[in-house]
């Protein structure tokens, strides 16, 4: 897998390879924090870990460029920990194994971590370089972006001296992002007293193999949500085969479309074969409905020991109704950018077991009033099931500035280097720019990056051919940044 170190530009790929060797799943970033501090010390640049757990690096201007505006390059250190069912990978201890195929870098059975490891690698390349020309530069590498933008939210005021923020967390080469959606985590909880099970059979039903994906970038691709597809089956099993719900586990990341869900149902033994047929029929229906999108659907049963207890009928029915009714997917597109999602929700995680039910959703919108609307919509849905609804991790959208000075510079350089016009866009994916702008409102902000596909899934990959032009653009932009 070390073959990626031989790719060009060497300074990016060598640093990205080093990052793949450091475990850095969201929530477990201690090793990568120390790795980055050690790197900075070796590179001879100032670095520290701030009160939010972010790593900040500062490098003075090259001689003669001290009067240029200060640029802070920003990326996040954590990665989404998703793996294939057959993988034994431990994200807290094991390095990521990479391979090259058809011009792309992939990971073996896991997420790659190019989101946002390649942004971090670019910052590292600038910090260690001895031959670049630039004004004062800073690197801000934030903690736990994927699980709630915690590092950006806890970023202290006053520690950055920059005039320009270049976020390196966009995922399409040739596209400059100048706005993004806000988001909020919604959790519905319920505790209940289980009842004894008097049924004589039980079956575990598993749905997996769905594409999943990034709940911001790919929410409008029509991909199946494992929790929403499972509830269609469960509702029929309860209504037609006297099945009872024992447990439900689906999804594992708020910002990833769930690709797997499994339930345990108790039922009369004479109905087991009918349940297996219902699973087969549900699989066929799902494949037909998503035949151009979902090509690796697995929907199967396994007879298991009958559980001792179950959710009470009323609780079970209320939960099924709420999951069925819960909105998932696009609510509407932006009227003035009709190709960009404005508001959406992702029914991300369901855990029902041992007298506790928890349902977790990430809602996004580029409008605060629409974000409030979807929160109230989902709260109403789960309140009718008797669930307690709470919200957390609320962050606002990033309002676009089409007259941005750094945007115009990047567009000029892109045209010079490629002969083509760059795409300027507002994204539905949440970026830390909005949070950072809340603390540093005078920053001139743009987001860019190389081409990545399917982040937050085991199909995540990076297009090798986009790394060198991305690096060339970044270098020239730092050299041509305006004077203060």
What does this structure look like?
There is one protein chain. With 484 residues, the chain is an alpha+beta fold. It is built from 11 helices and 25 strands. It has helices spanning 10-20, 30-43, 114-128, 150-153, 226-241, 272-289, 313-325, 368-383, 405-418, 433-439, 467-480; strands spanning 46-49, 55-59, 71-76, 98-101, 104-107, 137-142, 164-167, 175-180, 182-191, 195-196, 201-208, 213-214, 244-250, 256-257, 261-267, 298-304, 309-310, 329-334, 337-353, 356-365, 388-395, 423-427, 444-447, 452-453, 461-463. The chain is elongated and about 85 Å long. The model has no long low-confidence stretch (mean pLDDT 96).
Secondary structure elements and pairings:
Blueprint: H1 10-20, H2 30-43, E1 46-49, E2 55-59, E3 71-76, E4 98-101, E5 104-107, H3 114-128, E6 137-142, H4 150-153, E7 164-167, E8 175-180, E9 182-191, E10 195-196, E11 201-208, E12 213-214, H5 226-241, E13 244-250, E14 256-257, E15 261-267, H6 272-289, E16 298-304, E17 309-310, H7 313-325, E18 329-334, E19 337-353, E20 356-365, H8 368-383, E21 388-395, H9 405-418, E22 423-427, H10 433-439, E23 444-447, E24 452-453, E25 461-463, H11 467-480
Parallel strand pairs: 3-6, 3-7, 7-23, 8-22
Antiparallel strand pairs: 1-2, 2-6, 4-5, 5-25, 9-20, 9-21, 10-17, 11-15, 11-16, 12-14, 13-15, 13-19, 18-19, 19-20, 24-25
